[in-house]
Specification:
alpha/beta, Rossmann fold, 2 helices
Length: 145
């Protein structure tokens, strides 16, 4: 079986897959961090690829910042992730993002970081916690597709 494709293309502003709007002026930076950490965590896994492939079949890890706060030198952030089948097929039932893959519980994480690197530490910690939880779900779902 070829590697499972993980879509990381956030360039279409009408169909964003990483949404950091709650981070205000830091939203673009947060979205770039999310993408970078997803790619970094997935790259060593032979079952997955983020490289462009012909007729890709896989998943999009849709991430949204749902809470964000800065107080003094501390940054608090919460990111919620959904696994969406790729390529997305729009329908009224599935919604505009595509068909969501069911998981047992919410894929989310909250972190607080301090100092200049607090935001980066927070995003990295959350991604390291939740991205690996998606691996068995995507592998099992792909076997049924």
């Amino acid at each position: 079986m070829p590697p499972i494709f993980i879509n990381t293309d956030n360039s279409d502003k009408k169909k964003r897959i990483y949404i950091g709007d709650k981070a205000g002026g830091l939203s673009a930076q947060v979205e770039d961090m999310i993408k970078a950490h997803i790619v970094r965590i997935i790259t060593p896994k032979s079952e997955f690829t983020t490289n462009k492939v012909e007729d890709p079949k896989g998943y999009t890890l849709f991430c949204e910042v749902t809470e964000f706060g800065k107080s003094g030198g501390d940054t608090t952030i919460k990111i919620v992730m959904e696994i969406i089948r790729y390529p997305a097929a729009y329908s009224v039932k599935k919604g505009s993002k595509g068909e969501k893959v069911m998981t047992s519980g919410e894929l989310s994480g909250t972190a607080t970081g301090s100092g200049k690197s607090g935001l980066s530490q927070g995003v990295e910690g959350i991604m390291e916690k939740i991205v690996p939880k998606t691996f068995p779900v995507m592998i099992a779902d792909m076997a049924r597709r």
